[in-house]
Amino acid sequence: MGKSTAPKAAPEKPVDPRFPRPVLLPGQSLCDHCTAKCCKYFAWPIERPTKRDDFDYMRWAMLHSQTTFFVEDNDWYVLVHTTCKHLRPDNLCGIYETRPEICRSYSTNDCEFDSHYVYEKYFETPEQVVDYVEVVAPPKGRKSIRSPKPPLFQFV
Q1: Is residue 128 part of a domain?
Q2: SS3 123
Q3: Residue 45 · residue 8 · CB < 8 Å
Q4: How many domains are there within the chain?
Q5: How many other C-beta atoms can be found within 10 angstroms of the C-beta atom of residue 123?
Q6: I need a labelling partner for 103 at 20 to 30 A (CA). Which of 46, 132, 143, 151 fits?
Q7: Range of the domain at 86
Q8: Is the pLDDT of residue 59 over 80?
């Protein structure tokens, strides 16, 4: 069910005026206000689930704590909420000089400091996966719980 591609860096999004970036004084950078949001999870792209078994694997993964799934731009991801073991209490990197390339290539242009994402689909619990499958792929012999598509209006 997994793709062998690198984790996705957050796309640059416009700043939400309700959550402005801090005013930076001379000599400061956004890193001086960092909450290390990007160091407290990782997301990995997965193949789009198409069979009931695929969704069952998602449900199984979510039975292990701190795992969610989301869809963004029609791409599916597993999201693991876990803090990097080298994140210091002051939210700085404890292995800054030897940090992985993905960390080195991350910049304040991509910073998630002021990001407030709303995903196309977001699954936080195994029950949400079950509910979703019941709607999009009911068991054979059972009708979907979705309302049938209404007929097109006919103008006379």
Answers
A1: yes
A2: strand
A3: yes
A4: 1
A5: 24
A6: 46
A7: 30-134
A8: yes
